[in-house]
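Ticket #4471: structure export looks truncated?
Reporter: QA, pipeline team
Priority: medium

Steps to reproduce: submit the single chain below to the structure queue and open the exported record.
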Amino acid sequence: MAERKIFAGPRVRRIRTGLGLTQTTMAQALDISPSYLNLIERNQRPLTVQLLLKLSAVYKVDLDELQGGQGGNAGQLREVFADPLLAGEIPGDQELIELAEAAPNAANGMIRLYRAYREQAARLSDLAELLSREGRVADVAGPRLPLDEVHDRLQGRANFFARIEDAAEGFHTRLAPGDDIAGALKTWLKSEHGVAVRLLPVRVMPGLRRRYDRHSMRLFLSERLSPFDQLREIATEVSLLVMREEIAAELDALALSTPEARRIARFELARYASHALLMPYGAYLSAAQRLHYDIDGLGARFGVSFEQAATRLTTLQRPGASGIAFFLMEIDSAGHRLRKVGAQGFPQARFGGGCPKLNVHAAFAQPGQILAEVTEMPDGMGFLTISRTIEGPQADFGERARRTALLIGCDLVHRDEIVYGKALSPMSVAIGPACRLCERQGCLARAEPPVTRPLGLDEMAAGLSVFDFQ
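Actual output as written to the record:
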C-alpha cells in the first residue's frame, strides 16, 4: 500500500521556533541537512516515517499533532469568508487551509474578531429596535449591504404598490384569461413578442429557475419547479414586459443608494407584479372577505400555492378598499429569517418575530399542517398567527430538499373575521419580540439574556433559565 505523504512544514516550524532553535541546530539533532529542513518547513518535502519518529523521540512531539487533518481552523475560517462582506475574497478552500496551517494563531484571532463583530452587529440591531420603540432612529443601524438595504426598505413600508396594482388589473382585464391564465399568458407571449415557453430537465438547467434566451426567443423553465412556481415565473416575465414603466416608477420611489440594491429591488417588484397579475386586487379582496381569509381556499380559487396566496394577503391596502393588515415572515429550519413584509410594514417594534415559542418553529415538526394560535406580547397586545411549511424546488434523489416555514399574522381584534380564529382556544401563548429584548421571567424557551437587564446568577438558587436576570 502506498505510504501517505505528510506535509507538516508550518507545524515543524512552530516546534522549532517555540524551542528557540535555529534550522541548523534542529537539522543536526535530526541528522538531516539545514537545506532539507528548510524544504520541509516550506512544504516542499514530506515528513518521512523516520523523521516523524526522530521528532517524537528528540523533542517529545505528539505524532497525532503532526499527522492531524489539514487546517484545523479551516472550517471556521470558511464560515468567516462566507459572510457577504467577504464573499468572493477567497476563491477556494485551499487558501483557507494554507492560512490555518501556516498561521493558526492569526487564524484564531481572525475567527474571534469575526465572532465579536457578529455579536456587536446583533447587539446594535437590538438597540436600534429599542430606540425605534421610543420614536428615535439610530443612524448607526443603517444597512450595510445592498440586500440589507432593500429588505429594510421593504419591511419598513406598506407592502402595496399602487402603480403596479392598477397596471396589473388593467392588463388582466384586457387579457380575459378565463379559467386558464397559464395558457392565456403563454399565448400572449407568443403572439405579442414571439416568445415560446419551454420546460427543461434538471440536467440541462441545473442551477436556474428561469432563463430567457433572446436569440431563440424562448423562455426556459426548470422542471424542478412546481406548476404554481412555473406559473409565477411566466407571470414575472410578462410583468417585466407589460409593467416596465410602473415597476421603474416604484423602484425610483424606493430611493435606493446603489445599482446593486436597485437590481435586487427590481426583482422583488417583478415578483410582486406577478402576484398582482395572477390575483387581481379587486377580485382577490372580495374572495378573501367571502372566504374569511382561508388561505387554502384562496389558493384553490386562483390556482396558486399556499405561499403565493398568503403573500398576496399582505398587499391588500388600497385606500378605500383595504383588507385586514396581515404581516408575513419566512424562516428556514435553522431559524434564519429570510423575508419579512407587512400590509402596513412588518411590525418589528410591536411583534418582533424572534421568539422561539412562535408556532412557525413548530411547523417543521408537522410539515404541510396549518398551525394557528393566539399569542400575547409582554405589554398585553395580542396577535393571531398562522404557520405552515412550504416546499422548495423538487430535489434530486439523495439531495436534501429545501423546506421553509411561513408565519402570517394580524392583530387579534380581527380574530372573528378569520376562519382560523373562530376555532381557537381563548388561551394565549406568552411570547416576546426576541430573547434579547424580552424581560419575561422564568421563560423555559429563553436562548439569550436581555440586553436591557444585568444577569442575576445566584450560587444559592438556580432559576428555570440559565440566563436569569435581575
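Status: closed, not a bug. The export was complete when the record was re-opened. Leaving a note from the reviewer for reference: The longest strand covers residues 382-391.
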